[in-house]
Structure formats: structure tokens, C-alpha cells
Amino acid sequence: MSNDNDNVDVRLEWISEYVLRTLKVKYEKWQKMYALDENKNMIQLVLDKSDNAILVFYTNAAGALCVSLEFPNSLKQKAVYFIKKHRDPIPKENFKAALNYGDLSNSPLEQLSALVDEVLVPILSNPKNHEQWPSVVSQDVLRHVHSLKSNVYVIAGQVKGKTLLPLPVGSERMMEASDDDKSVKP
Q1: Residues 6 or more apart from 68 whose CB is under 8 A from it?
Q2: What phi and psi values does residue 133 have, to the nearest 5 degrees?
Q3: Alpha-carbon distances, residue 102 vs 56, 57, 96 (angstroms)
Q4: Nearest one of 48, 43, 52, 54 to 82, comparing CA atoms
Q5: What digits encode the pLDDT tens for the residues 90-117?
Q6: Most exposed residue of 108, 160, 172, 183, measured as fewest CB within 10 angstroms of its CB?
Q7: Please, what's the largest Cα pairwise distance for the chain?
Q8: Residue 80 and residue 103: Cα distance in Å, rounded?
């Protein structure tokens, strides 16, 4: 990236700052990665052309910053992704609105499991959140939420090489009631 303000691509500057901050790598690693024509062309292809929509940055085993046009099959550390909302070139003005971006965990299944257990299930299982819904819709949403939770739990176990069976719906309340009974007895 140049010091000449006329030649600075604000999109590239912002992407580099986001990648460096998120992956916690030094600017020298960005320079080294961007110095390779293949990487520079890949980035410019996504920014200026309508062909490719995905850009993924990650560090390899040697600690070097890498860029790819697709999600890697496996990660040792987290990655950063940028996905175009539309296939059009990314404009230099208001470019953030044309992108979806974020972090990609090195263990996405565990991240999904945590999201389901700690965010989706509590929100969608809370009866106050669907008071205005018809009872059929409410029951269907609850059934699907618990099915998703069970499926994620089983699949996470399979990936770890274990056989994990999901707990029945409502078992959390049974454990809470059991703890309450113990605290009441002298």
C-alpha cells in the first residue's frame, strides 16, 4: 500500500487493518503476503471483478499470512472471511455495506454447538418470546430447536470419535428441580 493518498484503495486498507487486528499479526506479514503477485491478483479479483465472491485470510503452520478464494478444509487457528453480498464489484464508497465479514473459528462445530446451546435454545425456548405466536407455531419452533440441539450434540460427538446421546427435552428442568430439593432438606 502506497503513502500517496491518490493511489490508496480504502477497501484494501480497511481489509488489511481488519485482518491484522483480528488475526493479531504484524503489518510486515501483510506486506509479505501482498507482495506476491498471485495474492495481490486474488484480492483485486474479488474487489474489482464479479467472478469470485469469497476471500479468506488465515495463517498457515509456519505463521505466514495466506489468502484464498475458498474456505480451507481445516484450520489450525482462526481465519477471517469476506463475502460479497452481490456478485458485483465492491464499490470504493460504502464498501462495508457490500460485504459480509467476520471470524471463522478453527473449530466451527464447537462454535455452532455453543451458539445453539447458549443463544438459540434459551431465546427460542423462552415462552415470553413467542407469546404472540399461535400455539401450533410455538410448538413447532420448540420441536425444531430441540431437534437442532440434539443433532448438533450427536454430530459433535461423532467428530470427536465418541457416541453421545442427546438428553430428552426438559431434562434441564429435572436437574434444577433435583438441586432445589437438595437445598430444602436440612
Answers
A1: 42, 55, 56, 58
A2: -85, 150
A3: 10, 11, 12
A4: 54
A5: 988 989 999 999 988 888 888 888 899 8
A6: 183
A7: 78
A8: 5
